[in-house]
Amino acid sequence: MDINNIKFTDKVREILSISNENSKQRKNQFVDNPHVILAILNTNCFGKKLLDYFKIEHQDLVDFSESLINELPVIQNPNNKIEITTSLLKVIQKSDETAKSMNDTYVASDLLVFYILSDQSFKSFVNRHNISLTNF
Q1: Residue 106, in any domain of the structure
Q2: Residue 93 is part of which domain span?
Q3: Residue 51 and residue 41 in contact, taking contact as beta carbons nearer than 8 Å
Q4: Residue 68's closest CA among 40, 36, 110?
Q5: pLDDT band, very low/low/confident/very high, at 78 (cuts 50, 70, 90)
């Protein structure tokens, strides 16, 4: 699946752009889920409201995301091409499938948050904070 064919809301495009810039500044090889979470926390969007609904302390999530980012590969000369990890691709694909099943044309940030928190890399965070994703 080519993500260029997925329709994103303007906010999600902004979030992905911020995530890409964050990845470049850190010289990470790829944009990954924690980059997206950090961008969502700094954007007024539905995804941030969903995090507030789960009563997640933003700083806890920032610290956790930063720890994941610190484990990512670093390169000396990042290019201008946006490259994403397989896990972020899966999040985007699932978000697109869910949006379509709900008869939504666009992928919104709340879907990204839901599927990022559902990702294995965030499992310990979700468990530690007793976040129930089954009732969403």
Answers
A1: yes
A2: 3-123
A3: yes
A4: 36
A5: low
CATH number at residue 49: 1.10.1780.10
Return the structure tokens found at 82. Answer: 């946006």
Q: Is residue 133 part of a domain?
A: no
What integer pLDDT is reported at residue 87 of this predicted model? 96
Residue 132 covered by a domain: no
Q: Tokens at residue 107, please?
A: 């992928």
Q: Which amino acid is at 111?
A: L
The pLDDT of residue 126 is 95
Are 80 and 59 contacting, i.e. CB atoms less than 8 angstroms apart?
A: no
Q: What is the mean pLDDT of residues 30-48?
A: 97
Residue 43 is predicted with a pLDDT of: 96
Q: What's the total number of domains in the chain?
A: 1
Distances (CA, A) of 52 to 47, 75, 127: 9, 34, 17
Reported pTM: 0.93
Alpha carbon dihedral 51, 52, 56, 59, in 10-degree steps, equals: 90
Does residue 130 lie within any of the structural domains? no
Q: Count Cβ atoms below 10 Å from residue 62 Cβ, excluding itself.
A: 15
Beta bridge partners of 74: 28
